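We modelled each protein-ligand pair independently. The example shown here corresponds to the adenosine-5'-triphosphate entry; the chain sequence is given first, followed by the ligand as SMILES.
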Amino acid sequence: MIAFDTVTKTYDGNKAIAGVSFEIQKGEMAFLTGPSGSGKTTLLRLVYREEVADQGRIVVAGWDLNKLDSTSIPFLRRNVGVVFQDFKLLPDRTVRDNVELTLRIQGIADDEARERVTSTLRLVGLRHKTDAYPPHLSGGEQQRVVIARAIIGNPAVLLADEPTGNLDPDTAKGIMDVFRTVHSRGGTILIATHDPNLYEHSGCRIFRLQEGKLLA
Ligand SMILES: Nc1ncnc2c1ncn2[C@@H]1O[C@H](COP(=O)(O)OP(=O)(O)OP(=O)(O)O)[C@@H](O)[C@H]1O
Ligand SMILES: [Mg+2]
């Protein structure tokens, strides 16, 4: 579902990603870890085509990103849900509206959209906050809205960058439970994190980056 073949990404002469190769199968949940600056966010941004590789080949959900022209990027992104810290919620729109946006972009009819928002908010445990505004939610609640927005379109691939950063252990556990549910329904998930508690005993594969290289 995600395949990197000797991928390199350079910023100002420095390799943020250096000759990285790996494959994540359809329906697999995997973790990406490594010290600050090791390239985790850069790798996820390459999958989402937010960044373009200098060398190597990347295939995501059947799309060869080297051959993707700019008009096809929105179609790729319909297949990729992202939980990134800089993908903020709209503060002046309700939780429902924020989550529904993904479906609006896909042109899904009102009735179906309403039902899917309700069931997705139930899944992340926020059904009771449907009509609230993001600034009135706690950090963990906002993060769960971001996750709801990312998964509502049933993306083939779900990417998360430090999804539990700055959250207390109980809230972090609740968020991991949501990812496990998505995974049990067949979702392919790649989660970048510093937090060993998330991946230890998870039974998932762990990719470790160091200075842009994947350790064995
Ligand atoms: N837009 C950019 N311009 C220049 N350099 C960048 C850019 N983005 C990342 N880098 C550099 O690439 C390297 C990898 O950064 P990246 O953000 O991928 O690390 P990370 O593993 O996500 O770190 P953290 O754990 O702190 O989030 C760093 O040396 C960083 O300074
Ligand atoms: Mg990062």
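Residues 119 and 134 are 19 Å apart (CA to CA).
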